[in-house]
Amino acid sequence: MFYWIAEQLGYPGVFNLFRYITLRAGAAAATALFIGLLIGPKFIGWLRVRQGKGQPIRDDGPLSHLAKRGTPTMGGLMILTSLAISMFLWMDFSNRYVWACMLITIGFGAIGFLDDYDKVKKRSHKGVSGRVRLLAEFIVAGLGCWIISWNGATELYIPFYNGPVIDLGPFYILFAAFVVVAFGNAVNLTDGLDGLATMPVIIASLAFIIITYLVGNKIFATYLGIPHVLGVGGLTVLCSAIIGSGLAFLWFNAPPAAVFMGDTGSLALGGALGAIAVSARHEIVLGIIGGLFVLEAMSVIIQVFVFKRTGKRVFRMAPIHHHFEQLGWSEPTVVIRFWIVAFVLALAGLATLKLR
Predict the structure, then answer these.
(1) How far apart are CA 263 and CA 113, in angstroms?
(2) Which residue spans within the chain are E strands per DSSP?
(3) Distance (Å, rounded) from C-alpha 279 to C-alpha 232?
(4) What is the DSSP letter of 155?
(5) pLDDT tens digits for 175-223?
(6) 324: how many CB neighbours lie within 10 A of its CB?
(7) 93 CB-contact burial (10 Å; exposed 0-12 / middle 13-18 / buried 19+)
(8) Neighbours of 58 (CB within 10 A)
């Protein structure tokens, strides 16, 4: 809104500052953080009253998790609220990449909300049918990716290679939608311990602040040999808003958590990162920066695949963070060590920017 007002006025005086993405990105992070901290206590209290017994806890999970019964879920609504307000104030309304990413973020959040609502209502950890949820996710992701690739940019880029490797043509939208859906569900699977998913999302968003800024700047993009996408620089504002809202949520989600983000938050944040990566043409790099989420998802896939064919388990429990709990690691130990892994992987992903 502030950018639009400044633009309509012709950027007079101090309003000229709103031209700069860096200022709006910093303001978006601060705004989202402030709003999240402001609404957090009352929001959590409202969720506790509305949900009663809170999020259902799996009986077949780690025994230590049974103590979390009664903790309200759907805290992702708090994240989405602070994120949406911040973006409304600081985004460029004419940027289609921002609108497409916001569509996917809010759309995935709505799907996650319906799933969380079903779980709370039924008092069961089983929510909306997996097939129905995946279909809805692909519809939302497909629409968003269609908007992103509206200008016909359907080339695929990979790390360590200068220039596109293949033009996927009409299949690009399907590929991009798969990236968004896969990453949304990968973050969802990671959200099993207090703070485990939130901080890696923040770390990945920090990495993509750098990537989107560089991709949106022709001089930097040409120097680094990465694709230049006009307008993608505006996504630094979205990345910053994710960081601010994520930090505010982490304030209340720190052990012992006062609220869980639920599928409402994890699907939305994962979808947002996937959409940002697709917009910046760094889909493969997302797999490195968000390698922790990939590892979590792969542990589930491997566990199910091997068990169905051999009757044996590769991990003591999947996703893999539960495996380490079963090995005797305390929850804070697992969370902090996984944060470290996420940080190292983010640095590795950023290192690919120059190795082309």
Answers:
(1) 7
(2) 155-156, 166-167
(3) 7
(4) E
(5) 999 999 999 999 999 998 989 999 999 999 999 999 999 999 999 999 9
(6) 19
(7) exposed
(8) 13
pLDDT in tens, 253-281: 988 889 999 999 999 999 999 999 999 99
Structure tokens at 110: 């709505």
Give 261-304 as a DSSP string. Answer: -HHHHHHHHHHHHHHHHHHTT-HHHHHHHTHHHHHHHHHHHHHH
Judge if the upstream peptide bond of residue 72 is cis by omega within 30 degrees of 0: no
Distance CA 44, CA 47 (A): 5
Q: Is the peptide bond before 164 cis (omega within 30 degrees of 0)?
A: no
Integer Cα distance of 266 and 268 in angstroms: 5
Which position has the token pair 């996504």?
Answer: 235
Residue with tokens 């103590």: 67
CA-to-CA separations, 184 to 141, 197, 317, in angstroms, rounded? 10, 11, 21
User: Concatenated DSSP letters for 206-255?
Assistant: HHHHHHHHHHH-HHHHHHHT----TTGGGHHHHHHHHHHHHHHHHHHHSS
Q: Which of 242, 239, 238, 217 lies closest to 228, judged by CA?
A: 217
Question: What's the CA dihedral at 176, 181, 187, 192 to 10 degrees?
Answer: -170
Question: Tokens in use for 157?
Answer: 């880029």
Task: Take residue 129 and report the two structure tokens written for it.
Answer: 């049918």
End-to-end CA distance of the chain: 38
Residues found in the chain: 356
Q: Residue 11, SS3? A: coil
* Nearest one of 337, 333, 316, 336 to 62, comparing CA atoms: 316
Dihedral of alpha carbons 309, 311, 313, 314, sign: negative
Residue with tokens 């319906």: 114
